[in-house]
């Protein structure tokens, strides 16, 4: 066990703001390489440190035209007003899945999608809570990338998503194998456990330009309305 924990510790040395935490695991998710889980099958958990924050409003356009700026401000105000009067997206109403979207051998990308299947409009804003579980049993809490969160209202059938970026293991070694990820939607305390759909993390004490971190949740523009 000392050797496996040193391997995980080496990954933590690679990643800024990464810490080991204890996490109550759910039952194992499906072994599908592109897993999908219903929140109804997840267990209740304590309040996740990564959920419930991210107070950024809509991002304004940088155009020099005053009228365009006014239009953008009006749109952001309408979005914030809609969000304020719409209940948050509850874990039980969301279909959650994770997909490997890695396109190069430097930075790995896993995309997590929340699809509203609750039959009502709901609001979503901020960062999800994300923990990765290694084959050793150790847990890695993924830090935020610091980008501003933009609020959104999901109609039934619409989706929101965020990315997990991680250093790609091109060392030739086996690396640290991640078995699952535990995801808590923004402003929620109930989580969902999914299979990790991507490769291993490298074991290295050297510096890397790629960090293990997550982006804020954002509405998927081309998701179908219910």
How does this structure look, described?
It is a single chain. A hairpin with a 6-residue loop joins strand 3 (94-100) and strand 4 (107-116). This protein has a single domain (2-219), classed as Immunoglobulins (Immunoglobulin-like). It has helices at residues 2-14, 66-84; strands at residues 19-20, 36-38, 94-100, 107-116, 122-124, 129-134, 139-141, 143-144, 152-154, 159-167, 178-184, 192-195, 213-214, 218-219. The strands form three sheets. Strands 2, 3, 4, 8, 10, 13 and 14 form a seven-stranded mixed beta sheet that branches. It has a five-stranded antiparallel beta sheet with strand order 1-7-6-11-12, with no helix packed on it. Strands 5-9 form a two-stranded antiparallel ribbon. The chain is built from two helices and 14 strands; from the N terminus they run H-E-E-H-E-E-E-E-E-E-E-E-E-E-E-E.
């Amino acid at each position: 066990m000392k050797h496996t924990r040193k391997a995980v510790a080496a990954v933590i040395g690679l990643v800024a703001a990464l810490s080991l935490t204890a996490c109550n695991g759910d039952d194992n998710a499906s072994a599908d390489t592109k897993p999908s889980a219903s929140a109804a099958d997840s267990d209740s958990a304590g309040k996740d440190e990564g959920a419930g924050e991210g107070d950024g409003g809509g991002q304004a356009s940088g155009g020099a035209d005053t009228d365009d700026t006014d239009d953008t401000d009006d749109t952001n105000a309408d979005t914030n007003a809609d969000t304020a009067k719409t209940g948050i997206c509850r874990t039980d109403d969301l279909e959650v899945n994770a997909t490997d979207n890695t396109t190069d051998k430097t930075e790995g990308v896993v995309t997590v999608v929340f699809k509203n299947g609750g039959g009502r409009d709901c609001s979503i804003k901020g960062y999800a809570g994300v923990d990765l579980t290694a084959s050793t049993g150790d847990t890695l809490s993924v830090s935020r990338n610091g980008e501003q969160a933009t609020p959104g209202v999901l109609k039934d059938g619409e989706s929101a998503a965020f990315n997990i970026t991680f250093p790609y293991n091109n060392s030739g070694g086996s690396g640290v194998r991640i078995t699952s990820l535990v995801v808590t939607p923004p402003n929620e305390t109930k989580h969902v456990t999914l299979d990790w759909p991507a490769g291993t993390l490298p074991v290295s004490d050297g510096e890397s330009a790629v960090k293990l971190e997550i982006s804020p949740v954002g509405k998927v523009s081309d998701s179908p309305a219910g």
